[in-house]
Predict the structure.
Amino acid sequence: MTNNPTLLLVVAAAFHRKDGRWLMHRRPADKQHGGLWEFPGGKVEIDESPKEALVREVGEELGIVVEPAELKPLGFAQSDQNDSENPIVILLYRIEDWTSDAQALEGGEVEWFHPAEIQNLDKPPLDCDLVQQLFGRTTLE
């Protein structure tokens, strides 16, 4: 019988503006993957749905208010079970309507980028997978 590891469920937001830019968050230097760019978000707590968690996370991290109905499922990425004791699954949601300007309230920085720029940012592996799903490959590897 196989030992099924506990999955760590994470949610992430792909904020999209009308000018074609997408929001990315640069992780604080003292955190895991410090200095890398990612879609903002965080862990889903035991008593939360993924949408509830993402609404909470973007409020805490960015000061953005978003209604759960505005979160549109977009894709997911998962780590290899051999990478850690608790494999990670990230659920990515597209958001096109929100209130407030994004601020890096928990450190790091936030910027708006065109897809080609995002492809060239240094990102954690799972965010690389999400970027590939969202934009495809437009750069040479």
